[in-house]
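Dear H.,

Thanks for agreeing to be a second pair of eyes. The structure we're designing against is below in token form, covering all 357 positions.
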């Protein structure tokens, strides 16, 4: 069986290893018009030793923004700024995919241009609060998307995916988990529609499938990955029928020939294994590690065949040269949540370097 340090063919790219850097919200897009800065290029280039980097969530349209200072891929300025990032990663021999993230109902009008309001499959507010520039605010009741608006939302994703390829990315990942827009269509507590976009599991997966199909047609299926988080309750999601929903979703995505499926695991390892067997191409796993972060022990999930790649999050923040440290079995810097996550979303600027902390 392969090890984490063996190469892997991903679409048209040969990955140096099977260690992925998971997408993590940064809230540091301080450039003009919500664009990345030179620090962003430095941050990702430092981590180019990963077999695959998946960027922070990047909104495909202005209304898709749900947090302060997150980047977009819907303007010429953003494309140009991201080009400096991809150039830096490629100069370091890395492979980088842009994650497209529309937050849907997770957000607040104060984070959006004047006149825009958060949207969702149904007008159901999430419980909880979001951090804004004015402090924590309750989630609002989103505007239910009409049929034509759903079509325009798909068009926004397609345009953003084309922009990502124009910016030099090696591919695009659609974020279909963590309680954001695509996940809101999948989950019965957030999708209460009675039209062709809601109801049964087969109808609730329609948005995700049509979106993936449209983006694959635009940029090539070999350049498109899809992320899911079955049974993960983030952002007030409830999925009592996760097996039926994700079985139906994977069944319909599998024939598209996508680059990979990226699964953020919930507590059901049996479901993970079933979806792994159902998926025909690269399977990336961000394993369920309750009360701790994904650590070196997770690499065994590659050698035992559970996954093709393992995605690391916080450990990559504290250890930019993580693949080298994993190969040497340490030492590892300890992630500091306050420093690296910027939990209040104020946008910390202390990017980790290769020096120990």
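And this is the sequence the design step returned. I haven't edited it by hand at all.
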């Amino acid at each position: 069986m392969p090890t984490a340090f063996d190469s892997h063919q991903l679409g048209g790219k040969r990955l140096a290893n099977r260690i992925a850097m998971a997408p993590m919200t940064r809230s540091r897009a301080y450039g003009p018009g919500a664009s990345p800065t030179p620090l962003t290029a430095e941050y990702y280039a430092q981590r180019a030793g990963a077999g695959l980097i998946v960027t922070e969530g990047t909104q495909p349209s202005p209304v898709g923004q749900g947090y302060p200072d997150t980047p977009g891929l819907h303007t010429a300025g953003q494309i140009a700024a991201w080009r400096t990032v991809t150039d830096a990663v490629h100069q370091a021999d890395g492979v980088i995919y842009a994650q497209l993230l529309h937050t849907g109902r997770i957000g607040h009008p104060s984070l959006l241009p004047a006149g825009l309001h958060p949207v969702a499959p149904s007008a159901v507010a999430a419980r909880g609060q979001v951090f804004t520039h004015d402090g924590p605010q309750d989630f609002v009741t989103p505007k239910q998307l009409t049929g034509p608006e759903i079509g325009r939302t798909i068009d926004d994703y397609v345009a953003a995916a084309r922009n990502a390829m124009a910016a030099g990315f090696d591919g695009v990942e659609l974020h279909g988990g963590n309680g954001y827009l695509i996940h809101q269509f999948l989950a019965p507590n957030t999708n209460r529609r009675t039209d062709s976009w809601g109801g049964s599991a087969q109808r609730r997966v329609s948005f995700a499938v049509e979106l993936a199909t449209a983006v694959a047609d635009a940029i090539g299926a070999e350049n498109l990955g899809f992320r899911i988080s079955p049974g993960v309750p983030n952002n007030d999601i409830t999925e009592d029928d996760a097996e039926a929903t994700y079985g139906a979703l994977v069944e319909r995505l599998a024939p598209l020939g996508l680059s990979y499926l990226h699964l953020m695991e919930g507590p059901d390892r049996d479901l993970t294994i079933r979806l792994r067997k159902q998926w025909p191409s690269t399977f990336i796993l961000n394993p369920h590690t309750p009360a701790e972060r994904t650590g070196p022990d997770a690499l065994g999930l590659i050698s035992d065949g559970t996954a093709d790649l393992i995605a690391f999050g916080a450990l990559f923040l504290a250890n930019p040269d993580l693949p080298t440290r994993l190969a040497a079995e340490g030492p590892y810097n300890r992630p500091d949540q306050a420093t690296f996550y910027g939990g209040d979303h104020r946008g910390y600027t202390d990017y980790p370097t290769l020096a120990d902390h």
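Two observations from my side: Residues 338-357 have pLDDT under 50 and may be disordered. The CA atoms of residues 38 and 341 lie 19 Å apart.

Warmly,
E.
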